[in-house]
Design brief:
Blueprint: H1 23-36, E1 50-54, E2 57-60, E3 65-68, H2 81-91, H3 103-113, E4 120-126, H4 129-144, E5 148-152, H5 161-164, E6 180-183, H6 188-194, H7 204-221, E7 226-231, H8 249-257, E8 261-265, E9 290-293, E10 304-309, H9 310-317, H10 330-345, H11 348-367, E11 373-379, E12 382-387, H12 398-410, E13 413-414, E14 416-418, E15 424-427, H13 435-451
Parallel strand pairs: 3-13, 5-6, 5-7, 7-8, 8-9
Antiparallel strand pairs: 1-2, 2-3, 4-10, 9-10, 11-12, 12-15, 14-15
Family: Belongs to the class-III pyridoxal-phosphate-dependent aminotransferase family.
Keywords: Aminotransferase, Pyridoxal phosphate, Transferase
Organism: Pengzhenrongella frigida
């Protein structure tokens, strides 16, 4: 039997469970299912009908305000006025594709590349993170001459045919590609409880590098040349594993020694979210060969990018002309430039670092005596709360995690779950999240914990 998708099915509405819903929600959900088909998913037992957003807040059709502790795509805040104004101005002037000269895309490219390591000196634009990862894999394969790709065991990297086959979080009904291998998530919380790993000691970085090396060897044993290790540096879908600082570096050394490239999927950890660095990979002291980005770079406007070392891109670019019709169009570029400007002008990286530290401390304080909360980990405004059956076994408790999510939703706080067990609360609010918002969230979270059995 196929396993369900951890990222799509765990915290999802069941279309058949409509008897207790308000009439307006029931009717809209039924109409949606009829015209959009069965693959789409809604959140929560009672779906939320949203009509407006502002900062870190969302409003439903009845005017009820919700605190958004989940939507990282609206990176600088829902409907940020500077992003909205930039889109409006450019939409009123011109919107066309990249086969005409336009100064804004060159200006933005230079600005964006200025945030990256010097070795990464070229960038290509697309519309979605899935497309960016798809292109990065093609570039890596052209550069290395190989086809083998390694990802983590609960990774999500996109929904194209190529990237779906590299996204085990979609469940086993979506098969992995023939030349794809997986390594376990770097779950230091559970590895520490299990004791020293054979040959790896207690060093998470060495252990993880050994896992990557083993899968490279397996590819070679099957006659498949290794091309790339594709990972996001916060391991978001795997359960949020950002630490210790630098633990990813030994694995990247293994990748390079084997002739492969490192593709840093920065759709989630990039653009100042981790607080400690502008890019998630920087926390590990590594320089990727390819960097992919997604819609957070445009605050939700469809834009994505793949940045590259010029020598890595050359094998693909010199032989294959690539054209993404409206990737990097002037309106999307205007949104992306506004996001970069807002991050700098509003000092959102420092804000993310400061407020994230406060969130970690607050969560640990209100959870200190509750056995369901096994671990709290994160960096900046990206935090995972690991819900367990008991602190000794550290066994994932999906039922309790979902109950927490639903009870937060009843208190008008929105979040969801991740991880192989579907038991890790994924907290990644817009960077506009404020100290007052944090107080609201911690109050709601403490109230919810008090309603759970101890």
């Amino acid at each position: 039997m196929a396993t369900r998708s951890t990222i799509m099915d765990t915290n999802s509405f069941r279309p058949g469970a409509t008897d207790e819903l308000p009439e307006s929600i029931r009717r809209l959900a039924a109409r949606r299912e009829r015209v959009l088909g069965p693959s789409y998913r809604l959140f929560y037992r009672e779906p939320v009908h949203l009509v407006r957003g502002e900062g870190a807040h969302l409003f439903d059709a009845d005017g009820q305000r919700y605190l958004d502790v989940y939507n990282n795509v609206a990176s600088v805040g829902h409907c940020h006025p500077r992003v909205v104004a930039a889109v409006q101005r450019q939409a009123a002037a011109l919107n066309t594709h990249t086969r005409y000269l336009h100064g804004a895309i060159v200006d933005y490219s230079e600005d964006l590349l200025g945030t990256l390591p010097d070795a990464i000196d070229q960038v290509m634009f697309l519309c979605t993170g899935s497309e960016a990862n798809d292109l990065a894999i093609r570039v890596a394969q052209a550069y290395t001459g190989g086809s083998g790709v390694i990802v983590t065991s609960e990774a999500y990297h996109g929904n194209t045919m190529l990237t779906s086959g590299m996204s085990p979080a979609l469940g086993t009904a979506q098969p992995l590609g023939r030349d794809v291998r997986t390594v376990p998530a770097p779950d230091g919380y559970r590895l520490a409880a299990a004791g020293p790993a054979p040959g790896g000691g207690n060093d998470l970085g060495r252990w993880f590098a050994d896992q990557v090396a083993a899968q490279i060897a397996d590819l070679e044993r099957h006659g498949t040349r290794f091309a790339a290790f594709l990972a996001d540096s916060i391991f978001s879908s795997d359960g949020v594993f950002p630490d210790p600082l630098g633990f990813l570096a030994p694995a990247i050394e293994v990748v390079h020694r084997a002739g492969g490239v490192f593709i840093a999927d920065e759709v989630q950890p990039g653009f100042a979210r981790t607080g400690q660095a502008f890019w998630g990979f920087e926390r590990h002291g590594v320089v990727p060969d390819l960097v992919t980005m997604g819609k957070p770079m445009g605050n939700g406007i469809p834009i994505s990018a793949m940045a590259a070392r010029g020598e890595v891109l050359a094998a693909f670019g010199d032989s294959i002309p690539y054209f993404n019709t409206f990737g990097g169009n002037p309106v999307s570029i205007a949104a992306a430039q506004a996001v970069l400007d807002v991050i700098r002008d509003e000092e959102l990286q420092a804000h993310s670092s400061r407020l994230g530290a406060q969130m970690l401390a607050g969560l640990r304080a209100v959870s200190a005596d509750h056995p369901a909360v096994g671990d709290i980990r994160g960096t900046g405004l990206y935090i995972g709360v690991d819900i367990v059956t008991d602190p000794m076994s550290r066994r994932p408790d999906q039922a309790a995690a979902l109950e927490i999510v639903e009870r937060l939703r009843m208190r008008h706080v929105l979040t969801s779950v991740c991880g192989a067990g579907g038991n890790v609360l994924k907290l990644r609010p817009p960077l506009a999240f404020s100290s007052a918002d944090l107080d609201l969230f911690l109050t709601a979270f403490e109230e919810v914990l008090a309603t759970l059995p101890t």
